[in-house]
Design brief:
Elements lengths: L1 E2 L11 E15 L6 H9 L6 E15 L3 E5 L6 H8 L7 E6 L3 E4 L12 H11 L4 H15 L15 H13 L5 E5 L7 H16 L3 E5 L3 H7 L2 E6 L2 E6 L1 H14 L10
Parallel strand pairs: 4-8, 4-9, 6-7, 7-8
Antiparallel strand pairs: 1-6, 2-3, 2-5, 9-10
Helix pairs in contact: 3-4, 4-5, 5-6
The structure holds adenosine-5'-triphosphate.
């Protein structure tokens, strides 16, 4: 999925993304059973639906310079995907601002946005059109993207609904990393496909990183993050707990995973 930045005028030239005091909350309906009877009972008593607020991201500020490759780590539910969806413009901030300078390509949920009735090849073309590529650019890229996905014989021209999850992931990854975006957001994409495809994906990521694009990667594959990223941030319960060299951050995070306790300097957070 591709989106154009909306208000990058205020951003210093060297920055691709500025996140300023960002908070994102979800409202969840906590009613045990959603039935018509319950709704009528509630209405007759003049009661409202009971909701609970989950603060998924809390007061996060972060500047990401053009060309940096940032890894995001954190336990399940830490707010990583919420942050990525918000940077992609899919999820509006509850408060604070995100300013993006450049064309974003996202791989946040594999294959979201694909038209299942169309073939893989047609979806690649649609992806190109959505990315604002010209017809000739699309023509020259389609074959190489299809080749990158490397599906079993004939599948690239079959409807996507006939694909296995793995085939789906391959095409989605191939589209996202070959659209030459300014900013690439990847959520757990490094784990798509079998071992051979993982290796190919990783090599393509290396190339993209070397091309000085701005890349944000959410992954539990810490050694891959250490190799690809020049900076890592650790999210914990919606807050940015630490930011720094990937090796340092992933080491601290790994200790936390093994011991189950935060380093003492973070306990107040
Ligand atoms: N659509 C939603 N509605 C309500 N709550 C949500 C929704 N999506 C996420 N949450 C909640 O927001 C918090 C952050 O979730 P998020 O998916 O961003 O975490 P994450 O770090 O990406 O986790 P994981 O590693 O498990 O994918 C969690 O408490 C989660 O339950």
């Amino acid at each position: 999925m591709l989106s154009e930045s909306k208000s990058a005028k205020s951003l210093p030239d060297n920055l691709a993304i500025r996140i300023n005091d960002l908070s994102i909350s979800y409202k969840i309906n906590v009613e045990s059973k959603k039935t018509l009877k319950n709704a009528i009972m509630r209405a007759s008593k003049g009661e409202r639906v009971r909701t609970r607020t989950v603060e998924a991201v809390k007061n996060l500020s972060l500047d990401i310079p053009h060309g940096s490759v940032v890894g995001i780590v954190g336990a399940n539910g830490a707010g990583k995907s919420t942050l990525m969806r918000s940077i992609a413009g899919i999820l509006p901030p509850t408060s604070g601002q995100i300013t993006v300078n450049g064309r974003i390509s996202t791989l946040l949920a594999l294959g979201v946005g694909f038209n299942k009735a169309l073939s893989g090849r047609d979806n690649i073309i649609l992806g190109g059109l959505a990315a604002g590529m010209s017809k000739s650019e699309i023509q020259s890229q389609t074959d190489s993207i299809a080749e990158f996905a490397d599906l079993p014989e004939g599948f690239i021209d079959m409807p996507v609904r006939t694909y296995s999850n793995g085939m789906y992931s391959r095409v989605a990854f191939a589209v996202a990393v070959n659209m030459t975006p300014d900013i690439l957001l990847l959520d757990e994409a490094l784990s798509a496909g079998d071992a051979a495809f993982k290796e190919k994906s990783f090599n393509r990521m290396r190339e993209l990183c070397a091309e000085a694009r701005t890349i944000l990667i959410v992954s539990h594959a810490l050694s891959s993050l250490n190799e690809l990223c020049d900076r890592a941030i650790w999210l914990h319960k919606g807050k940015m707990l630490a930011s720094g060299k990937p090796e340092d951050i992933t080491e601290q995070y790994l200790k936390f995973l093994n011991v189950g306790e935060l380093p003492s300097s973070y306990e107040d957070l």
